[in-house]
Design a protein that fits this description.
Blueprint (H helix, E strand, L loop, with lengths): L2 H36 L6 E5 L1 E4 L7 E5 H6 L5 H7 L3 E4 L8 E4 L13 E5 L2 E2 L12 E8 L13 E7 L7 E9 L3 E13 L2 E12 L3 E6 L5 E7 L1 E14 L4 E15 L13 E2 L6 E16 L3 E19 L3 H8 L3 H6 L3 E20 L5 E20 L5 E22 L4 E24 L5 E22 L5 E8 L1
Parallel strand pairs: 6-9, 13-17
Antiparallel strand pairs: 1-2, 3-8, 4-5, 6-7, 8-9, 10-11, 11-12, 12-15, 13-14, 15-16, 16-18, 18-19, 19-20, 20-21, 21-22, 22-23, 23-24, 24-25
């Protein structure tokens, strides 16, 4: 065989190989298209209206994230949730207990008032000053926009954020996961779940998370010299979340759950944007923010045949200690012209201590008729006691200590019904009668002029109001549903 014949054979072999590859690729592509054509995603199921249903049947605006979406989107806390949720706004003040929420522009940060946006963990309302925590063992997050309260919980004017945590599994399962990142960030998480005895199962999740600070802090030792100490925005968190589930019969389930979170941070609340060394602070001493919180819940569910009874008893508490220099040397230098050294030597120290205890109780009956209509009636109560003290030592501000106490009680009756007027059309009507009572007392004790020596103050609010919701929804097709809702919070 001469060289010409060899080249011709080589070309034919190459073309044959390419053709076979093309047939193989075409066959794979056809199979892939066939699989995609028959692929059906599971409908997202939510419990925004206390029973589980496809998200498209809920007659108000909401966003829901299941566990996989939370992990894929790296949604670990409210700051991340805000970036992924329309009309959900989160303001980071630098202090976790003072961060703010609003939905559709409506929100309240006052501890004297009920929150406009309420956080719930498995149906238990979380205290307003302790809502901003890292998510723990979360199965699903639902952000409900618009007034809530005709079906469950508190009378949330702007909306609610509902966390559904994982339940114990029927088989023994375990999981360990971890991650590393810049600024020496780390996360280590472990979960163990499964049966303990006949009719009893449990689940425990433990997580630790931390990272170094990313903002430098300078302590001035003279007019021109400074020493850079540990960075600001350093965090360290340890948390545990657990459940015990008791099957007391075919019709009754009792779930006891609890969680504990210890969150320590070195926060900063302000920076000089136009500084030459931005970002940098000059705070002396380094701020410290320690927030320890815990929650417990007892949930009883009983199938009564044509209806279901649900009782949720919740306990929430937290303790806060915050020590901080409230005068940054660089900001003071820019505003007053005083050298950072001068401001740093005459620092303004603020110490805040808070502790709060909250009890809640909810009981409801819910059912579904043979025609598919649903109904809920219930009662809820909440009692909280909040104590705080703020102590200021400063060369420029009034020196002294202010202590306050707020006691709140809230009771309500609520109900809502969904009536099917046809196979595809539903009308919804609900109402809530609410009574809120708040008592406030405060006392100031001054130390140095120009501070006032002492004074006391007190006040109370006692009001009743009715809220409600009217809605209608229609399934135009199996994939398309339209609704209209009018609600008052």
């Amino acid at each position: 065989m001469n060289d010409t014949d060899k080249k011709a054979l080589l070309r034919r072999t190459t073309l044959l190989s390419a053709s076979l590859a093309g047939v193989s690729f075409a066959s794979w592509t056809t199979a892939q298209e066939r699989d995609l054509a028959t692929l059906e995603l599971d409908a997202l199921t939510v419990s925004a209206r206390v029973w589980e249903e496809p998200v498209k049947e809920v007659p108000f605006s909401l966003s829901a994230f299941e566990e996989a979406a939370l992990k894929d989107g790296m949604i670990d806390d409210s700051r991340d949730l805000f970036r992924a949720t329309p009309n959900f706004n989160f303001t980071d003040t630098g202090l976790p207990e003072a961060n703010l929420l609003n939905i559709r522009g409506i929100g309240s940060s006052s501890t004297f008032l009920s929150p406009s946006v309420t956080y719930y963990i498995d149906g238990v309302p979380v205290q307003q000053r302790a809502f901003d925590q890292r998510f723990l063992d979360t199965k699903r997050v639902e952000v409900l926009r618009g007034p809530q309260g005709t079906l469950w919980g508190q009378s949330s004017q702007a909306g609610a954020v509902s966390f559904v945590t994982e339940n114990p599994t029927e088989t023994v399962q375990g999981r360990i996961a971890g991650s590393l990142g810049n600024f020496d960030a780390y996360t280590l998480e472990g979960t163990l779940s499964g049966p303990i005895a006949e009719g009893v199962s449990g689940r425990i999740n433990v997580q630790t998370h931390g990272r170094d600070g990313d903002i430098r802090n300078a302590t001035f030792t003279s007019l021109t010299e400074s020493v850079e100490e540990e960075s600001l925005r350093e965090t360290e968190l340890l948390a545990a979340n657990g459940k015990l589930r008791f099957e007391t019969g075919e019709d009754t389930t009792i779930t006891l759950s609890g969680r504990y979170v210890s969150d320590e941070q070195r926060p900063t609340t302000g920076l000089l944007v136009n500084g030459s060394d931005f970002p940098i602070n000059s705070l002396n001493p380094i701020p410290l923010n320690e927030l320890d919180s815990m929650g417990m819940a007892l949930r009883v569910e009983s199938d009564l045949g044509g209806s279901k009874f649900v009782s949720i008893t919740g306990y929430e508490s937290y303790d806060l200690l915050m020590e901080a220099d409230i005068t940054d040397g660089f900001i003071a230098n820019a505003s007053m012209g005083a050298p950072p050294f001068f401001v740093g030597m005459l620092n303004s120290l603020r110490v805040i201590e808070e502790d709060s205890i909250q009890w809640s109780q909810e009981a409801r009956l819910q059912g579904e008729s043979d025609s598919g209509s649903t109904w809920v009636v219930g009662f809820s109560a909440l009692d909280s006691n909040f104590d705080s003290s703020t102590d200021v030592t400063s060369p420029a501000l009034p020196n002294g200590k202010y202590a306050a106490n707020i006691e709140k009680t809230n009771t309500a009756f609520f109900g809502e019904a969904t009536i099917l007027t046809s196979e595809r059309t539903r009308f919804i009507a609900g109402a809530r009668f609410n009574r809120e009572k708040s008592d406030f007392s405060g006392a100031w004790s001054g130390r140095l002029p120009p501070a006032v020596d002492a004074f006391d103050e007190e006040g109370s609010v006692d009001e009743e109001f009715i809220t409600g919701r009217l809605a209608a929804s229609h399934d135009f097709s199996d994939e398309l549903t339209g609704y209209a809702t009018v609600a008052r919070g």
